[in-house]
User: Which sequence fits this backbone?
RNA sequence: GGCGCCAUCGUCUAGUGGCCUAGGACGCAGGAUUCUCAUUCCUGUAACACGGGUUCGACUCCCGUUGGCGCUACCA
């Protein structure tokens, strides 16, 4: 093998891009980019029942959105493609044939029912369920009989009892005893490979130097090493990343948590920057306590030595915090661009110039882009609210009425609608009428926004402009009559 | 059941035998600012799963227990 770093992410398109897949994708990608290696996307679609083209699209779209690009993948077959396992079936069959010829594998005619029964018996006897190997030495007559019955065979790999040891990049030294395994299936009766087999072959043919994947594959590793030895493959480095868990500490699942990068995060207003940062600090941490990371900085700082061994519970609150943080850091222009699809959906896409100033007032309270329409709708529509909201607590209807009328009068005569001069003006109004600042500003703000919580009165006045502001204040005065 | 992995505040984590009275971040609570909310700042809250060793000394090393997760499929 050459010493170029080549890593891959190998999702099966039986579902959308999952946050766990994105997690291993990110760590692989970071490693490749840091080492000037290659990052490969391979689609493992040998489960024809459940694989769907739309999921392939979802996966590639999601990765691209996150900023994770790949050097080799399904859209181009060079140099070691195809990169879709369904296009590589002949390859797997040839390798299976080779194993068969070398007596390292055999046809197994056992039916599913027989196997289940066998397993049940073993379980009753408290034995480790493992295949008996009874088809290993079938006579020609037995084979003929099975074929006559129309049985379609699987191909099983002969497991030699031995110890398999390897050093995992994150877990350290690991050893398995293969005598506990039993001969396992490598080709299904429909002629398709099992993922274990296809994966081992593809990793070899695609010259994968480091197999970095979820910890759920750790127990599969010795089987793949066995396969590699039988086929004379070089052994790649292995690294198994800790899993992401639901709050109840079970393996992360969509039933208990949002998991779809596109549907649950992208489409509900999370930023790719926040997702990347969040995913990166689950299972990995820098020695200097830094928690805010851009993709670019991660490339330099990421290290397998600093990857933790224990699983991490998905924490939506931290994600929200990070998302808010990155939203606050955007320029208004960037924010408006990012918010566009959400505004369109809410029918607030007109009035571009007003939009920018409105967004800048609201930016610091946005947690998700999908919050934006509700936060800025009062800039576009007349607010609706009940009279009670106008009356600040600990004040009276009479006072509020005076406050609004006096404010109206002075605002009507004011030509400078900048926030600073407005502040001077309105504080003076309050003082002159023996009102607390709040007794003037609260009803004003409600009159303009119709909301209990909103940006400050001065900013809203400035943003709305004189004409619109006066119109709304007048309406509130009428409400109090 | 067998095999494997894992075990520090509620959560993400720092910690590689004395720097630990265990640090940071999110969350939560309180405070400052304030017309509300948010932002920002300050303060506080809260953990080494348990039991044995090893050692002058264990969060750190070893063993066991418990617990969690994964694999044990013609799913990946």
Assistant:
């Amino acid at each position: 093998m050459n010493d170029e770093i080549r890593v891959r992410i190998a999702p099966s398109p039986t579902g959308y891009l999952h946050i766990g897949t994105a997690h291993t994708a990110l760590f692989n990608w970071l490693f490749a980019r840091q080492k000037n290696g290659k990052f490969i996307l391979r689609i493992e679609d040998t489960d024809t029942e459940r694989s769907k083209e739309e999921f392939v699209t979802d996966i590639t779209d999601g990765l691209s959105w996150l900023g994770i690009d790949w050097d080799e993948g399904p859209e181009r077959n060079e140099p070691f493609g195809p990169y879709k396992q369904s296009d590589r079936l002949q390859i797997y069959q040839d390798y299976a044939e080779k194993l068969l010829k070398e007596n390292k594998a055999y046809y197994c005619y056992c039916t599913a029912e027989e196997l289940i029964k066998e397993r049940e018996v073993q379980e009753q006897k408290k034995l480790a369920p493992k295949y008996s190997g009874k088809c290993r030495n079938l006579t020609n007559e037995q084979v003929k009989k099975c074929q006559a019955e129309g049985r379609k065979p699987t191909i099983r790999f002969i497991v030699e009892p031995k110890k398999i040891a390897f050093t995992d990049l994150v877990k350290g030294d690991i050893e398995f005893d293969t005598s506990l395994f039993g001969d396992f299936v490598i080709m299904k009766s429909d002629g398709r490979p099992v993922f274990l087999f296809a994966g081992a072959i593809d990793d070899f043919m695609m010259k994968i130097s480091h197999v970095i994947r979820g910890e759920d594959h750790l127990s599969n590793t010795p089987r793949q090493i066995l396969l590699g030895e039988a086929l004379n493959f070089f052994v790649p480095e292995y690294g198994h990343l800790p899993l992401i868990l639901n709050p109840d500490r079970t393996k992360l699942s969509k039933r208990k948590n949002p998991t779809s990068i596109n549907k649950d995060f992208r489409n509900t207003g999370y930023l790719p920057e926040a997702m990347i940062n969040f995913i990166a600090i689950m299972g990995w941490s820098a020695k200097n306590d830094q928690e805010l990371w851009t993709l670019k900085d991660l490339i330099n700082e990421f290290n397998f030595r600093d990857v933790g061994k224990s699983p991490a519970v998905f924490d939506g609150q931290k994600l929200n915090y990070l998302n808010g943080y990155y939203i606050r850091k955007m320029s208004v222009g960037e924010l408006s661009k990012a918010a566009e699809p959400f505004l369109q959906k809410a029918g607030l896409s007109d009035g571009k110039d007003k939009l920018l100033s409105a967004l800048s007032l609201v930016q610091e309270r946005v947690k998700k882009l999908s919050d934006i329409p509700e936060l800025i709708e009062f800039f576009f529509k007349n607010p609706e609210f009940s009279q009670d909201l106008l009356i600040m607590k600990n004040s009276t209807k009479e006072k509020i009425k005076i406050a609004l009328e006096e404010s109206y009068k002075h605002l009507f005569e004011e030509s400078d609608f900048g926030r600073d001069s407005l502040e001077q003006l309105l504080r003076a109004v309050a003082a002159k009428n023996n009102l607390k600042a709040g007794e003037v500003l609260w009803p004003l703000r409600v009159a303009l926004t119709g909301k209990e919580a909103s940006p400050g009165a001065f900013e809203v006045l400035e943003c709305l402009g004189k004409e619109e502001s006066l119109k709304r204040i007048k309406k509130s005065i009428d409400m109090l009559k």
